[in-house]
Amino acid sequence: MDIKTQNIFEKIKTGKRINADEGLFLYEHADLAELGLMADFIKRQKFENKVFFNRNFHLEPTNVCIHGCKFCSYSRKQGEQGSWELSMEELLETVKKYADKRVTEVHVVGGVHPDRDLNYYCQLIAGIKSILPEIHIKAFTAVELDYMFKKGKISAEEGLKKLKNCGLNSIPGGGAEIFDPQIRKKVCHEKSDSTTWLAIHQKAHLLGIPSNATMLYGHIEDYSHRIDHLQKLRELQDLTNGFNAFIPLKFKNKNNLLSGIREVNYTEELRNYAVSRIFLDNIPHIKAYWPMSGKDLALLSLSFGADDMDGTIDDSTKIYSMAGSEEAKPTLTSSVMIRIIKDARHTPVERDSEYNELQIFS
Ligand code: V47
Ligand code: SF4
User: Fold this and answer.
1) Looking at the predicted structure, is the pLDDT value of residue 320 above 80?
2) Fewer CB within 10 A of the terminal residue: the chain, N end or C end?
3) Domains in the chain, start-ordered, CATH in brackets?
4) Cα distances (angstroms) measured from residue 25 to each of 67, 236, 297
């Protein structure tokens, strides 16, 4: 280990926070095995050998979207070939299929549809709760929420309160992309800016609605933009402590306007997991989102700081298969999830959406 890495490891061992320059150094120069060692040290201090998962499914009401993010392979304009707009009845029929399955969470996410508003989505949330009263509803990125609130001429605070009253439990981490305004302008100039994303999450946390955060990386950003992104999340978490998990999302290049960009390789993905774990000392969970990265890489990332495999999914999301993920039909039964985590020599723990431990499979 060189002297700078040794100093950083010393800080980690004594529970001190690393700064932006040190984060940048790790991205640019650190040896991958040494990064893994440091990230795994932190992960084990927090959770020992445990790896979390839940039983969940996704509900994607529509892929019609007013925005045209260049990295997106999923959105379509209204009426365009490949677009879908599920009716309330169709959505609730899908939910009914889960009445006799042991799922604990539904993740609702979709395009920013021009005609659907806060009342519509409140009705959807309440409808889901009437069918599955115990389910945790994690719904709507800050970008979808921003549109609902603006359309309804309602403040974020009032809008979030209304959704919470209808049954919303938490907010997923999507829409964060990369906070740097110059990069954001180039890859998703139309949608909510980073200040708005952060403000909606802050408001949610203050209202007792926890959330997750993502970072879309591996396109046109450089390491300094990633550190800036992580720093903004760390600062907000210092204020609110409302983020449960951070999910790094590697840019996938199929069927979108950035298809000319080569995807980063496995070593870069592992580097990114490790730096995220080391830098984000105040966000408890680092999620390896296997429908995006593939199961094998997700399992490897568990030795590079990640502690959470998200959930069983039940082939209910299309975002990543449309962007070229190797997981064309993402589904894991809980028994397979348990087996692959055990095969990687970790202890699987089924969790609920607030990370309460439901069952340990030791
Ligand atoms: O915001 C879109 C990303 C996100 C591509 O909170 C892409 O538990 C890679 O946020 N390549 C939505 N990424 C998904 C999301 C998420 C996923 C899993 C768990 C949670 C959680 C949240 O997907 C978007 C965008 O950043 N995305 N296109 C692409 N081509
Ligand atoms: Fe719309 Fe989200 Fe795709 Fe952007 S990433 S075009 S906001 S669905």
Assistant:
1) no
2) C
3) 3-360 (3.20.20.70)
4) 35, 23, 24
